[in-house]
Amino acid sequence: MRDEIKLLAGFIIGLAVSYFHWVGLIIGGFAVGVATRSLRVALVSGVIFGTVVWLAFVAMLSANGMADKFFAMSPLQYVSLLLTVIATTISASITNFFSSPSQHKM
Amino acid sequence: MKKLVVIPTLLLVVYVMVAHSYLNLLAPFSGSLWKQSDEKVVLNPYGYVEVYYDEYGVPHIIAENEKAMTFAVGYIHAKDRLFQMDLHRRMMRGGLSEVFGESFFDSDEFHIKMDFAGAAEASWKLIKETELGEMLIAYSEGVNYYMDHNDLPVEFKLAGYRPEKWTPQDTLIIGKEMAWSLTGDFWDLKRALIVEKLGESALELYPDYMNHSYPIIRTGVVNKSLLDWLKPFEAKDGIGSNNWVVSGKFTANGKPILANDPHLLLMAPPVWYELHLQLKGENVRGVTLPGVPVVIIGMNDYVAWGFTNVGADVIDFYYYLWKDGKYYYKGQWFEPQKEIRTVRVKTDGGYGYEERKVVVEKTVHGPLIDKYGSKVAVAWTGLTATTESIALYKYNHAHNITEFMDGLRYFDVPAQNVVYADIYGNIVYYPAGKYPIRSIDGNEVPGNVIFNGSAGEGEWKGFSPYGISTWEGFIPFEEIPHLINPDYVATANQRVIFGYQHYLGDSMYFADPYRGMRIYEMLDGAVNSGMKITPEFFMKMQRDVYSKPAEFFVPYILQAEGKMSEKDIEYVEELKGWDFRMERDSRAALIFSIWLDNFMNETFKDEFYHAGLDKSFYPHLYILQNLPAESRWFDNIQTPEKETREDIAARAMEMTVKEIEEKGYTVYGDYNRLNIEHPFSSVVKFFNYPSMPMNGSTYTVFNFRRAVDWGTGVSQAGSSWRMIVNFDENYCVIPGGNSGNLFSKHYSDQLEMWANGKYKPLDFEIRGEKVIFEVSR
Q1: Chain B residue with the nearest C-alpha to that of A54
Q2: Nearest CA to B31 among A72, A54, A27?
Q3: What's the first-to-final CA gap in chain B, in angstroms?
Q4: CA–CA distances in Å: residue B61 to residues B287, B390, B398, B649
């Protein structure tokens, strides 16, 4: 249960910081990685976190009536998704290795 | 384990090093491509200001003093239009190729040779000690404050440069740009080339006057390569405007009513930036040019004003006798004033730079254009210290006709048809500006020729290029034909008046009379019917798409039916019973519009292209309309037969049918589409405005010109601001939105409204989201 809370906290902190700067993607990736017990789960969490941040951004654009503009920018919107997911996934993989070796399940 | 930590950490470091600039641009939420500046408190050295952005992103600015207000205008212009401001000053200073590559070097060379920067400097010397000078300093500080405290607009990141600090001279050079775009006309040079290539007899196509009955005031040494090089930098055919004003005697509320819609190039973001200023309880609202802190067209609590371009000939060209690099002038040999400027040019696909030299040479008359073996000096009224900025400042503050007229005296360039109305019931028409009087051997002469500069022919007395002019050789302000309190007056770039004692320009300097005719027809009809004019009637006028050319040319098509195929006649049937309205769902408008282009081209192409002259040398449409049916211009010189107007009309219809079928057009809106582009449109399309079918044409009051030839490309032009003022109900709209930031909701929020002829209120009500400019300590 503590891991789930950590994971949720990582998501929220990362999302909040990402609103102001892309460093939030790294902090968030790092934070969700901390909450995982294996590299594989860390990588998946990183991908999910990055995708959620990107979707939250799209939702905000949509609420402001700007989603059409965003999706008309092809391929930049997909580059944005790719950049985000790579940043969060690499960050998540780092933090996973700060966990105790006994927790690793390679 | 340590090794495993190091690997992904290194990977992250490498990733950040490689991708950080892309993350800065494209990261969700914080990427500069979509992030908006949201500074709510700004420190202002001059005083307290509140700014409210209304539902269309129009700032309403309330200030405790004028300098504080002007600082805020600078900040706000930069916030919404900084890239546009920088792009235009960069173009005028000749600095485009440094950031956009060597394809812009010709533009830089032209603008440097003309030394517009020197002219702006001369204007600054004249006004820097005035109250306005202090305002321009405060404005520049506001622009620079924004640049220093905020992320730059994304265009700078995409282009990879930072703008330099804004200066008062930059504001003045933006004014010079507008003036040049309206009056920098190379017709005198073209005319000389036409005479050389087609003979003197071709001047029948370019008479001194077009013979029509709708003037505004109804009482009364060149080669083709040089011209091709100059074409992108001259005033465009698409530039024109409408304005009209009616006395309160004929209006529903008993006050005068005024309308204006200047026709300029349509671009994203638009030419104009709308704002409302309130100082000591007094209001002024209208449109500014980004980079210029005063309302240019608009209204205050007491007066309203609008402009159209007079189009008068305020530019002349001079040739000289040359020997050993010296020019002969009035019996003596002179060295041209010479300066070598270095331009840094981006090359190798953006990875390198090279330095190129541009030689700036000036004679007593002005800058020399020396290209392809042609060498002429240019005198243009804007190439001296001018005071139109003072005029505009005075308009903004005018309380009555006397104060406004005082401002008119300062309006030097570009000469404008100013219409005015006030709450006291006065209306005015005044084509304000400086008009040179030319003479040879003491006799006044027209200025549509290239003058012998060596003999001192045609030169302007009192004109000092890049200095302070005394203007004594120009038409005195009082002698400029004008109207004070007429019943009504309409201007649409047509000739000002017939039979005036001074030369203002030949027929090519003035527009075809069709819009002027139509506006006067509608006003005459309303006044003669006894109706009381309302803003709704003026809206209907500004939306009017009735084509006078269609009324005059469709009979020529019908007369040619006997020479057409059955298939072509089916198309002609569509024109029978047509109401001559250029509406987007009209098939007849589609057929007529394409036919008209073909008819013009088929009439003149053989003679002109044979002589090496392109479409830009063709005469006005009104001249074509009035050619006799048997005119020699209808005869195709490449065929043995002798063609007449009917033959050419039939051939043009055959071509029209072919084009419509090939392109798959069904209605006018398929052909007449709005495509407003951003300066980056050749690289990315997402800054462009949405495309849509349009009503209107070049010759209708609701003005939309789907293709204006720049020489280096095609753009669109049309109403850049529609304004209607009767002091009780006032309306306006711009073609796009007030913000230049792509992800602002005000980027293009007025576009559909504009395209459909709808309006928003032009009022002084303070409302919307608030920003505070606090006094800095």
Answers
A1: B28
A2: A54
A3: 56
A4: 14, 21, 19, 57
Hey, of B34, B157, B684, B747, which one would you mutate to test binding to chain A, going by the most A CBs within 10 A of its CB? Answer: B34
Whether the Cβ atoms of residue B244 and residue B419 lie closer than 8 Å to each other: yes
Between B116-127 and B66-93, two packed helices, what is the crossing angle to 10 degrees? Answer: 160
CA dist A75 and B273 (Å) reads 31
Do residues B592 and B665 touch, judged by C-beta distance below 8 A? no
- Chain B, nearest residue to A58 by Cα: B28
Residue written as token pair 């039916």 = B561
Look at B33-42, B239-248, B696-705, B759-768 and tell me which has the smallest mean pLDDT.
B33-42
Q: What is residue A38's three-state secondary structure?
A: coil
Q: Do B388 and B413 meet the contact criterion of CB atoms below 8 Å apart? A: yes
What strands lie across the sheet with B322-323, from one edge to the other?
B322-323, B326-329, B332-334
Contact B503, B313 (CB under 8 A): yes
Spatial separation of the C-alpha atoms in residues B487 and B256, rounded to whole Å: 10
Give the pLDDT of residue B185: 87
Distance CA B699, CA B513 (A): 9
pLDDT digits (tens, 9 = 90+) for B657-679: 999 999 999 999 999 999 999 99
Tokens at B40, concatenated:
């709510």
- Phi–psi pair at B320, nearest 5 degrees: -140, 165
Reference B772, options B40, B16, B4, B26; nearest CA is: B40
- Residue of B8, B22, B30 with shortest CB distance to A94: B8
Strands B450-452 and B315-319: what pairing?
Answer: parallel
| Confidence (pTM) | 0.93
CA dihedral over B380, B386, B392, B395, signed as positive or negative: negative
Query: Residue A103 — very low, low, confident or very high, per pLDDT cuts 50/70/90?
Result: very low
- Are B653 and B566 in contact by the 8 Å Cβ rule? The answer is no
The span from the first CA to the last CA of chain A, in angstroms, equals 22
Closest CA to B242 of B514, B500, B507: B514
Contact A69 B26 (CB under 8 A): no
Q: Cα separation of B494 and B775, whole Å?
A: 50
